[in-house]
């Protein structure tokens, strides 16, 4: 799933390659992906793409005051095309929406496609007069890379919360932009168990967690900066320290990275770095072993 660093990189890529061009047309292939009807998607035709930004994990394209907002969900991605001349919507297992831009000086018509792999189709596209009209954006928590996301801000978030810190970091209404992968990374940097209850954090642990959040995300944004859209997935994977690395050696201490599985996701952690050497209970694995 694209998270804050990848969406920020996509916005930067589009600022460089698409902003300033007129929208020649928008082809909606997977109609379930389009979540709004007013304004109609056809209203984007002829407008100029004037800005590209981000709200948490939402990509926001400003088109002369109308906003084309996308949430890529778990299996979604943005695929840039240098030339869409002659492209037809047709049928595709992955293509959801195609945005065609005005031709370049060489005659090629660039654009991008929103795609979604897998059977669970959750990619969401909105056309709105104001980004805050999008329900998910209106309910977002603070952005962890904003200047006003301070240690005090984080302290107020964890205070009194009986939620495990892993779940709290992933809650978009609490903190915007962090998903399953980067929450694992943040907790590894902070040397903190994903099962630790948020309200039990000491002042020193809150400060360490704040530093881990900001540095982990900023480092990931920095690694992604300047990359082509198609290279962002592989860069993300190569830069992760624990997430998706079950069975590998921890790069900090050498212990074996372990996993806890859930119904539709899994977390990874290092016992030595995060849980005092104790493996966390994996209830699904325990049931399988019985």
Automatic annotation (TrEMBL):
Names of the cofactor(s): Zn(2+)
Catalysis performed (reactions): Hydrolysis of DNA containing ring-opened 7-methylguanine residues, releasing 2,6-diamino-4-hydroxy-5-(N-methyl)formamidopyrimidine
Sequence ranges assigned to domain FPG-type in this UniProt record: 241-275
Domain of life: Bacteria
InterPro entries, per the entry: FPG_cat (IPR012319), FPG_N (IPR035937), H2TH_FPG (IPR015886), Ribosomal_uS13-like_H2TH (IPR010979), Znf_DNA_glyclase/AP_lyase (IPR000214), Znf_FPG/IleRS (IPR010663)
UniProt keyword DNA damage, yes or no: yes
CDD domains (UniProt xref): BaFpgNei_N_1
Keywords: DNA damage, DNA repair, DNA-binding, Glycosidase, Hydrolase, Lyase, Metal-binding, Multifunctional enzyme, Zinc, Zinc-finger
Formamidopyrimidine-DNA glycosylase catalytic domain span: 2-93
Keyword Membrane: no
Classification via PROSITE patterns: FPG_CAT, ZF_FPG_2
Family membership: Belongs to the FPG family.
PANTHER family: FORMAMIDOPYRIMIDINE-DNA GLYCOSYLASE
Name the UniProt record assigns to this protein: Fpg/Nei family DNA glycosylase
Source organism of this protein record: Sphaerimonospora cavernae
Classification lineage: Bacteria, Bacillati, Actinomycetota, Actinomycetes, Streptosporangiales
């Amino acid at each position: 799933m694209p998270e804050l660093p990848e969406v920020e990189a996509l916005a930067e890529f589009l600022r460089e390659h698409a902003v300033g061009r007129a929208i020649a047309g928008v082809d909606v292939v997977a109609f379930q992906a389009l979540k709004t009807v007013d304004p109609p998607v056809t209203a984007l035709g002829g407008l100029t793409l004037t800005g590209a930004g981000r709200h948490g994990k939402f990509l926001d394209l400003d088109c002369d005051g109308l906003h084309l907002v996308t949430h890529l969900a778990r299996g979604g991605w943005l695929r840039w095309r240098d030339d869409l001349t002659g492209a037809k919507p047709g049928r595709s297992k992955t293509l959801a929406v195609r945005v065609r831009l005005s031709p370049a000086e060489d005659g090629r018509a660039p654009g991008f496609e929103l795609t979604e792999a897998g059977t669970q189709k959750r990619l969401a596209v909105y056309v709105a007069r104001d980004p805050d009209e999008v329900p998910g954006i209106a309910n977002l928590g603070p952005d962890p890379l904003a200047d006003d996301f301070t240690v005090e801000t984080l302290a107020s978030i964890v205070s009194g919360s009986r939620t495990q810190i892993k779940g709290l970091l992933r809650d978009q209404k609490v903190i915007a932009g962090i998903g399953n992968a980067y929450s694992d990374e943040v907790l590894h940097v902070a040397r903190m168990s994903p099962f630790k209850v948020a309200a039990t954090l000491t002042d020193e642990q809150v400060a360490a967690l704040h530093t881990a959040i900001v540095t982990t995300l900023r480092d990931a944004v920095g690694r992604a900066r300047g990359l082509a859209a198609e290279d962002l997935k592989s860069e993300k994977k190569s830069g992760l320290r624990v997430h998706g690395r079950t069975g590998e050696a921890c790069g900090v201490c050498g212990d074996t990275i372990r996993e806890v599985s859930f119904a539709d996701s899994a977390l990874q952690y290092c016992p030595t770095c995060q849980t005092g050497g104790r493996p966390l209970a994996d209830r699904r694995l325990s049931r399988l072993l019985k």
